[in-house]
Design a protein that fits this description.
Layout lengths: L1 H13 L3 H38 L1
Keywords: Membrane, Transmembrane, Transmembrane helix
Length: 56
């Protein structure tokens, strides 16, 4: 079972189908990691604001 999955991934990469699948994979990655990205952006802005308030 694992070898069939690995063989399928290799076929996708080396047969040129990755060009057609890359937008779908990109969208899937954005959906999966959007909560982490939002948290990272929020923390960067909130820490910047707290540092300013703490200094002055």
């Amino acid at each position: 079972m694992d070898t069939a999955l690995l063989q399928g991934m290799i076929d996708i990469v080396f047969k040129g189908n990755l060009v057609f699948l890359s937008p779908f994979l990109f969208l899937l990655m954005v959906i999966l990691f959007s909560d982490r990205l939002i948290e990272l952006i929020y923390e960067s802005f909130s820490s910047r604001g707290s540092n300013r308030r703490g200094r002055y």
